[in-house]
């Protein structure tokens, strides 16, 4: 499994293979869902990254054109990557490469192509670069002065046992700072946040190890998803 993944990426990056040759034009590449064991070993086998080299990758591979100079997205269409954990960024790039993550938005397809052009070393380097850039609060200062929505605050910190929703903060951290493969979500672009939560609800995004996120999002209302997006976008990180 691990060898296959690394070999595939080496072949892809050396130009011997491309996504069209592997999967047929327009077809999704397929990969088995992660087991905890396979993911842990794959992440352990990744080369050590370097943030300075990662900055070069970010600029040379044009990541900056969509994700911003420091990974803080200048646009509502793209995810912010600054302040993200190394393990999560690494996992996303591997998931795009292997087609584990491929939502039906057209946009994910761009990421699949881009990820397939990167070597394992470049992935590790760029992940270090984003982790080294401090998290930012999204949007204008006005949003921050809005009163905290008590219902959302409770959902985040206590969850909702009647709907089997585990508190978001128990995994994503009290300040949405993330840890390991659990992503940082504070400071995230709200439009992206909503889109990806809907993708979990629709089962279009199912690249997480035990598919927990689709369970936690299943019974959230649209209004709750919107409010959670704003709550996290404007949550100040104390890391
Ligand atoms: C043409 C625009 C574009 C470029 C260039 C681009 N990305 Fe993306 N990226 C996106 C979009 C759009 C998404 C969100 C996809 C989705 O909604 O499924 C994304 C998502 C991501 C994610 C997942 C974010 C998350 O929070 O899960 C990572 C990591 C990422 N990109 C890294 C990179 C890196 C590294 C590069 C350069 C090698 C790059 N991107 C280049 C548009 C781009
Ligand atoms: C049991 C732990 C757990 C709980 C509880 C949890 N999450 Fe997650 N969440 C994760 C993991 C792990 C991922 C990454 C999945 C992957 O690998 O793609 C994730 C992914 C996400 C993402 C996608 C981030 C990105 O950059 O694309 C968002 C948004 C999110 N969670 C929001 C929430 C919210 C809001 C709640 C509470 C309603 C919540 N999560 C509850 C573990 C959890």
What is Rg? 18 Å
Helix content: 40-55%
Q: Secondary-structure element sequence?
A: HHHHHHHHHHHHHH
CATH class of the largest domain: Mainly Alpha
Bound molecules: heme C
Shape: globular
**What is the CATH H-level superfamily of the largest domain?**
Cytochrome c-like domain
Please name the CATH topology of the largest domain: Cytochrome Bc1 Complex, Chain D, domain 2
Give the termini separation. Answer: 35 Å
The tally of helices reads: 14
Give the count of structural domains: 2
Task: Give the low-confidence spans.
Answer: 1-26
Mean pLDDT: 86
In this structure, how is the largest beta sheet organized?
Answer: none
The number of strands is 0
- CATH architecture title of the largest domain: Orthogonal Bundle
What is the structural class?
Answer: mainly alpha
| Beta-strand residue percentage | under 5%
How would you describe the overall organization of this protein?
The chain is an all-alpha fold. It has 2 domains: about 1-130, Cytochrome Bc1 Complex, Chain D, domain 2 (Orthogonal Bundle), CATH 1.10.760.10; about 140-235, Cytochrome c-like domain (Cytochrome Bc1 Complex, Chain D, domain 2, Orthogonal Bundle). Helix content is about 55%, strand content about 0%. It is built from 14 helices and no strands. It has helices at about 1-15, 20-25, 35-45, 50-60, 65, 85-100, 105-115, 120-130, 140-145, 150-160, 170, 190-200, 210-220, 220-235. The chain is globular and about 45 Å long. The two termini are about 35 Å apart. Residues about 1-25 have low confidence and may be disordered.
């Amino acid at each position: 499994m691990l060898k296959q993944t690394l070999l595939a990426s080496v072949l892809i990056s050396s130009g011997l293979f491309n996504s069209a040759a592997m999967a047929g034009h327009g077809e999704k590449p397929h990969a088995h869902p992660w087991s905890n064991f396979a993911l842990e070993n794959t992440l352990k086998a990744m080369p050590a990254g370097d943030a300075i080299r990662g900055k070069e990758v970010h600029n040379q591979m044009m990541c900056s054109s969509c994700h911003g100079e420091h990974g803080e997205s200048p646009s509502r269409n793209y995810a912010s990557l600054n302040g993200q954990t190394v393990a999560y960024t690494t996992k996303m790039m591997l998931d795009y490469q292997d087609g584990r993550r491929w939502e039906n938005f057209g946009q994910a397809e761009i990421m699949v192509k881009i990820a397939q052009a990167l070597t394992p070393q470049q992935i590790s380097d760029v992940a270090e670069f984003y982790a080294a850039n401090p998290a930012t609060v999204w949007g204008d200062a006005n949003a921050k002065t809005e009163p905290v929505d008590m219902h959302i605050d409770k959902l985040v910190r206590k969850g909702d046992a009647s709907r089997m929703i585990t508190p978001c903060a128990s995994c994503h951290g009290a300040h949405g700072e993330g840890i390991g493969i659990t992503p940082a979500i504070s400071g995230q672009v709200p439009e992206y946040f909503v889109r990806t939560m809907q993708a979990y609800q629709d089962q279009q995004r199912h690249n997480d190890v035990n598919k927990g996120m689709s369970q936690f999002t299943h019974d959230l209302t649209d209004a709750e998803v919107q409010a959670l997006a704003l709550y996290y976008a404007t949550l100040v990180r104390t890391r």
